[in-house]
Design a protein that fits this description.
Helices cover 35% and strands 23% of the residues. By secondary structure, the chain is an alpha+beta fold. The chain has a single domain, classed as Cyclic phosphodiesterase (Cyclic Phosphodiesterase, Chain: A, Alpha-Beta Complex), CATH 3.90.1140.10.
Amino acid sequence: MRYALYFTPPKDDPLTGLAARWLGRDAFTGSAFAVPEHDGLSVGDQFELTADPRRYGFHATLKAPFALAASVRERDLLEVAEDFAARTHAFEIPELVLGRIGRFFALVPGSLHQPLQDFSASVVKAFEPFRAALSEADVARRKPERLTERERANLMRWGYPYVMDEFRFHMTLTGQVPPEHSDAMNAILTERFAAHTGRPLAISGLAVFVEETRGGPFTVHSWLPLAGAQS
């Protein structure tokens, strides 16, 4: 069993439903959806190109997946998560846009937003006591030889390279898209998520995701509203 602290909008939020139908799976319910057809991209190509984010569910990583330390239990983690959410105020990202990270497409902030950076850092620090140390295999999977010095330091200190100053909020929509499909994918996602881009995104909750077996799908165990979040 592994756990992760993610951001995702509430279960009934229109963006949650839209993203679940795009990815082909709802992380709240486990429901699967048929891949929609689009001009310029076959159903088979889209199914393949959304396979990686489909397993994780629609989310932005705050505290990357981890096994529990031997000294703690799931209920300890959940109690701290509930307390953390109750003490942390909801806020907004001023603008959500469609962006690219390498060959991945994702929904990202229009610009660096310091409250979001601070929120991410606070989650990483608050839940560090619950994380079991990485195994040698875990470290090797991150290909430390390809990381920057700061990213390697983060990996060894926090269990994940892209935290603190290296954190960039992103809600992944695809795996690596080959250049020959890039333009078509950009056009499809621009149209499909137009109602949610160019406008604010409420950071209104903290989600505890679980992975029952290594390599299996992640599902939402608990979605906890932040203080002051509108219902």
